[in-house]
Structures are given as C-alpha cells and as structure tokens.
Structure prediction request, 228 residues.
Amino acid sequence: DIQMTQSPSSLSASVGDRVTITCRASQSINNFLNWYQQKPGKAPDLLIYAASTLQTGAPSRFSGSGSGTDFTLTISSLQPEDFATYYCQQSYGFPRTFGQGTKLEI
Amino acid sequence: QVQLQQWGAGLLKPSETLSLTCAVYGGSFSGYFWSWIRQPPGKGLEWIGEINHSGSTNYNPSLESRVTISVDSSKNQFSLDLTSVTAADTAIYYCARGTGTIPGTFYYLDAWGKGTTVTVSS
Prediction:
C-alpha cells in the first residue's frame, strides 16, 4: 500500500492567517493527489484534485501544489468556515489511501 | 446535481453481516466508480472499495476477504456487504462517486452520501 503522511496532525491558526498543510507519499504518485475538507458531522468535500486543480465551487483561497512524493495545501487567508479537518488521498495505486488528517483549529 | 442517498442497518451484533445501499439521483450512473469509504469514531478515512456500472470491482486488500460491492444499474443503486463484523468495524460508512474511469483521467470523489453510522456491539 502507498502510505500517505500528513503534517501537522493539528494546527492552530487565526482568521486571516496563511496556512500550509503537507502530505507526503511513501512512493512517487506523480500528481495523483486529492485534498478534501471535512467539517464535524458532515461528509468530506472535494477541494483539489490532480494535486493543483481547484474543484468547481471551491474558494480560490485554496491552492495545491506538488508532484512525486511531496504535496502541499495552502489556504491564503483563513476564513471562519475553513476550520475543519483536511485529508489528502492518493489515486495512483490501490488501495486508494488517505492521509490521517490535519485538524485546523482556531 | 447528483445526490447520493444511503441506508442500512445501524446496529449489528458481532459476526453479523453489514449491508448498506446507496441510490444515485440526478446524474449519470455510467462512467463512474461507485465507492464506499468508512470512518471509525474520531479517526480518519478508510477506502473500502468501488464498482463501476458494469460490475467491475476494486477492493481494499485489508477487507477484501469480507467485502462484496454490487451494483443494480437498473435502479441506479450500489450496495456494500461486509461479513463477520466485529467492534473494529464500527464506523460511519459513506458512499461516494468516483471519477477517472476513462484511462488518462484523474480519479477523485466528487459527490458523497451523508453517511450511515454503524455500530457493532453485543
């Protein structure tokens, strides 16, 4: 299995901050990397696919970058609704593994 | 706007079979991977497996011996069966739509059901 490791596991930030979350794959996955946002009690929501393509409807303050084994999700200016848990997922191989999540707290 | 509506038994005893169904409304049923993902209480997401409209499946090897995902294209529904459940299978189970069935396109989960809480307890 391809292991996905996110860092940090939790992060405290304030409204207006610029935040970066990292996801590292145990082997090269090219750019087969997705990012999801999950709010408490809700299903995850797709933010970014193919490492850097913003899903339709996702706010432009979210951006993704990376290729190979190292990827980042950046929120340029945190908004109150962005406090949630973020997951990366690789789609290069089976099983389609997720990172353990990064909880973004106020 | 596609919607996924899921249902199934929420309380099981150890050794029983978990059965969930997900119905797809408002979108094409062909051309996607219909997927199941679970989330134990307070933990992260685990991909269980997927099926396309013609019945071709991919499973997580960690669950493959106990999992069956099936499809009823006439009803735009797909189902999950997980046999011999234990307390470790207690989780919220999500159905979701996956893209990327066409070679060279990217896979991602772009529509999700609301989740079904399944508890395994004697």
Observations:
- Residues 48 and 60 of chain B are 5 Å apart (CA to CA).
